[in-house]
From TrEMBL, chain A:
Main location: membrane
Record-level GO BP terms: sodium ion transport
Keywords tagged on the record: Cell inner membrane, Cell membrane, Ion transport, Membrane, NAD, Sodium, Sodium transport, Translocase, Transmembrane, Transmembrane helix, Transport, Ubiquinone
Family: Belongs to the NqrDE/RnfAE family.
InterPro entries linked to this entry: NqrD, NqrDE/RnfAE
Compartment(s): Cell membrane; Endomembrane system
GO MF annotation: an example: oxidoreductase activity, acting on NAD(P)H, quinone or similar compound as acceptor
Class in the EC hierarchy, top level: translocase
Protein name: Na(+)-translocating NADH-quinone reductase subunit D
Reaction(s) this enzyme catalyzes, per UniProt: a ubiquinone + n Na(+)(in) + NADH + H(+) = a ubiquinol + n Na(+)(out) + NAD(+)
From TrEMBL, chain B:
Major place of residence: membrane
Residue numbers carrying FMN phosphoryl threonine: T219
Name of protein: Na(+)-translocating NADH-quinone reductase subunit B
The gene coding this protein: nqrB
Superkingdom of origin: Bacteria
Stretches that traverse the bilayer: 58-77, 97-121, 133-163, 239-264, 276-295, 301-319, 331-348, 354-374
Broad EC category: translocase
UniProt record, GO biological process: respiratory electron transport chain; sodium ion transport; transmembrane transport
The protein's required cofactors: FMN
Keywords for the protein's UniProt record, in alphabetical order: Cell inner membrane, Cell membrane, Flavoprotein, FMN, Ion transport, Membrane, NAD, Phosphoprotein, Sodium, Sodium transport, Translocase, Transmembrane, Transmembrane helix, Transport, Ubiquinone
Length: 226, 393
């Protein structure tokens, strides 16, 4: 959790804020680009390397993180005023763990094969720094609705990168997308080979690196002053 | 020469500021300085080392020192091909021509793909073309098996230039040796085309001749890893280089001629070269004392002539950018490369040739070695000033 975002201080407002005010919209969109959990804050890299061999598990993983992140944000935000400060990490962990177990049981019940592919990585969402980071940085000091949006935004920011990375890895590593063969047979007949480096974790790291490179060269806000 | 200069002078205004093709100035500059000694001098902000040898001349000297390896490699490709087909009485020239026809496409593709990438980056980033690729473009085909498909070579070259070099800022900034990055990429991405016993010798049938019965396509180290002691070529053959292997790395003699050129011109570091051989020799000697498997039983000197050890020691480990910069660091760096290369060879049958991985690994470690060498130096010198401080106090 090296590069944590600074919590947006909850403003005291007199009039009732609309549900999707400009500020709330930013909570939703910021993590997709300017404040992406993976490419900007460089959090949650381990799972991004581990589950992105194929697109299907990455999509499921992305959704799982969205759900866990959003609802644990809401729960923590609801009880933020009664959590004793000294044990707040343990309380946060308990909430996250509860959500993860719910998601895990759900996957086992309805998507058993994907659940088997993801194996321990669903359980390891508990240790995903993005979730703990959002709880500490945002949910502890904000109302439930913004916290919910923040959770959704960060979950999708994470999931988006996961899906992009897995798309490239599945395309080059297996010649498939979502399990359907997209590289035509004539390619293989004329000497095309699947790239087995794409199946290995280093390629995920390289793709994440390239994404960061592209994002930084397009988005001037992210370039540090020299 | 004169008409060429005239042509360049005529074209020049188009590329200079305000010209129609201003964007492509880096490309023009590259060609101009490649053909003629540039007439501009270092600006007031540059380092003021004046020498007749600039980056382009350095690089071209390294390419020249690779020529013995290249020529021998071409002959060997032809020789191995004809040997596999049982055609023993082929003249030296025919062997050479056959090899040249097979190797030239590799060189063209390597230079074509790599230089195009360099040009694109130079134009986007508006800097002059980096000369570094002149050497990498020659090294890459020399460390490839002859049967590598050309598209794979192109992909690997582009990958090496972008991921190995441009992401770090271009020539002089890279952490890893770009040529080895290309090879490592292919090795892990397309293992069936980069290892095993089907890629080292061209066995396309010829005039009714087919592959002879006793043919084995494995390299010496491949055979050794599989435990076939009697199939390992003797030390004379492997020293001269009449063995199957990547295009330019089989001959230790050719590598040593290249080493002589590099050392004579002062481009290659003798500290690195000697310590790589020393490290490899010592490690092989230690293993030889145990002699538990076929690879361990190979004598230390024999080890140094097999595979890409000599080629890596002379041309790859001495890469001035990715190697260590301090003199003490160079000894440590070189020694560990030789040491690790033999270690990988002997203990990891999945990678019968450990030289590539050993050099890449030490490339990553090089800044760390330099850091500690410098720290140690600072500490040593700090100790020296302490008594004087005490006298004052």
């Amino acid at each position: 959790m090296s590069k944590e975002t600074i919590a947006v201080p909850a403003k005291k407002k007199k009039t009732k804020e609309p549900l999707f005010s400009a500020k709330n919209k930013r909570l939703l969109y910021d993590p997709l680009n300017d404040n992406n959990p993976i490419t900007v804050q460089v959090l949650g890299i381990c799972s991004a390397l581990a589950v992105t061999v194929k697109m299907k598990p990455s999509i499921v993983m992305a959704l799982a993180v969205v759900v866990v992140c959003a609802f644990s944000n809401v729960i923590i935000s609801l009880i933020r005023n009664i959590i004793p400060n000294r044990i707040r990490i343990i309380v946060q962990l308990t909430v996250v763990a509860t959500m993860v177990i719910l998601v895990d049981q759900f996957l086992k019940a309805f998507l058993f094969d994907v659940s088997k592919q993801l194996s321990v990585f669903v359980g390891l969402i508990i240790t995903n720094c993005i979730i703990m980071g959002r709880l500490e940085a945002f949910a502890m000091s904000n109302k439930p609705w913004p916290a919910f949006l923040d959770g959704i935004g960060n979950g999708f920011g994470y999931g988006m990168i996961l899906i992009i990375v897995s798309m490239f890895r599945e395309l080059f590593g297996s010649g498939e997308l979502l399990g359907y063969r997209v590289v035509p047979d004539s390619f293989y007949e004329s000497g095309y080979f699947n790239n087995s480096l794409a199946i290995m974790p280093p390629m995920a790291l390289i793709i994440v690196g390239i994404l960061i490179w592209i994002q930084r060269s397009r988005n001037q806000k992210l370039i540090e002053s020299k | 020469m004169k008409p060429l200069r005239k042509l360049l002078n005529n074209l020049k205004p188009n590329f200079e500021k305000g010209g129609k093709l201003e964007k492509f100035y880096p490309a023009f500059d590259a060609f101009e300085t490649f053909l003629f000694v540039p007439n501009h001098t270092t600006g007031s902000k540059g380092t003021h080392i004046r020498d007749a040898i600039d980056l382009k001349r350095t690089m071209i000297l390294v390419v020249l020192s690779l020529v013995p390896c290249l020529l021998f490699g071409m002959w060997n490709i032809g020789y191995q091909h004809h040997l596999a087909l049982g055609m023993m009485n082929v003249s030296v020239m025919d062997n050479f021509i056959f090899g040249a026809i097979k190797v030239l496409p590799l060189i063209l593709v390597s230079y074509g793909a790599g230089l195009t990438t360099e040009f694109v980056f130079a134009i986007i980033r508006k800097h002059t073309i980096n000369e570094g690729f002149l050497v990498s473009g020659m090294l890459i085909p020399l460390i490839m098996p002859i049967e590598v498909p050309l598209w794979m070579l192109a992909v690997a070259t582009i990958f090496a230039v972008i991921i190995g070099k441009e992401v770090f800022g271009g020539t002089g900034m890279n952490i890893l040796n770009p040529a080895l990055t290309a090879r490592a990429f292919l090795f892990f991405a397309y293992p069936t085309k980069m290892s095993g016993d089907e890629v080292w010798i061209n066995t396309s049938p010829e005039k009714g001749q087919t592959v002879v019965d006793a043919y084995t396509g494995a390299t010496a180290l491949g055979d050794a890893a599989a435990g076939y002691q009697d199939k390992i070529p003797n030390i004379i053959d492997s020293f001269i280089g009449i063995i199957p292997g990547s295009v330019g790395e089989t001959s230790t003699v050719a590598c040593l001629i290249g080493a002589a050129i590099l050392l004579f011109t002062g481009i290659g570091s003798w500290r690195i070269m000697t310590s790589v051989f020393a490290g490899g020799f010592l490690m092989a000697l230690v293993f030889n004392l145990f002699g538990l498997n076929t690879l361990m039983q190979i004598s230390p000197l024999h080890h140094l002539t097999l595979g890409g050890f000599a080629f890596g020691a002379v041309f790859m480990a001495t890469d001035p950018v990715s190697a260590t910069q301090t003199n003490t660091g160079k000894y440590i760096y070189g020694f560990l490369i030789g040491f690790l290369a033999i270690l990988f060879r002997v203990f990891n049958p999945a990678y019968p040739e450990g030289m590539m991985l050993a050099i890449l690994f030490m490339n990553v470690m090089a800044p760390l070695i330099d850091h500690y060498v410098i720290e140690a130096n600072i500490k040593r010198r700090l100790k020296r000033i302490k008594p004087i401080q005490n006298q004052d106090g």
